[in-house]
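User: Can you predict the 3D structure for this chain?
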Amino acid sequence: MHARELLLPVVAPIVGVLALGALVLGGPWSPLALDSANARYAGGDLEGAISRYEAVAQSWQTPSTRAEAWRRAGMIRRGQGDVRGAVRDYEHAAEIEPVAERRSAILTELGLLYKDELHDPRSCAEAFEHAALDSRAGEGDLAAAGCWLQAGETDLAREALTRAAARPNLQETAEKALASLEATPASAADVEP
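Assistant: Here is the predicted structure, written as structure tokens:
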């Protein structure tokens, strides 16, 4: 027998296992996929990191892992100035995140994007209100009230502050804000002719 004939039955299974391991560990469904995306990000390969995060988000089985991948892609996009892309990623993340507190954090980030980057007070308020629904603390209602005021929606701001006042941790702050709101004279737009 030749050496090749002797080695082939021994080497072929080893090569097969190594190839399968490389495929599994290198694919977006791998337990190391988020680590790979993180390493690309840390190394400055932002487009490569976004690509890996999106691959994980589209193929991973665990909803929380998929949501985290969308959130991280959104963070990178926001840093690159792609605010619309970041909004899309955060919305995907919020849709699939099953854990309420984590979903609240994602929605808070989304609300801040609408407020600070897009200057869209209505969308800002809606994101913060949804965040408050998922949060034990409910700070989103306070933030939503501010956004509603920026949108000129005094009644919706009042509703958000009333919800916030019902939470013991926010009661004092929300009641002060409500009192301040009630003491503010109506604007010309609020007065009927």
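Residues 64 and 98 are 7 Å apart (CA to CA). The chain has ten helices and no strands.
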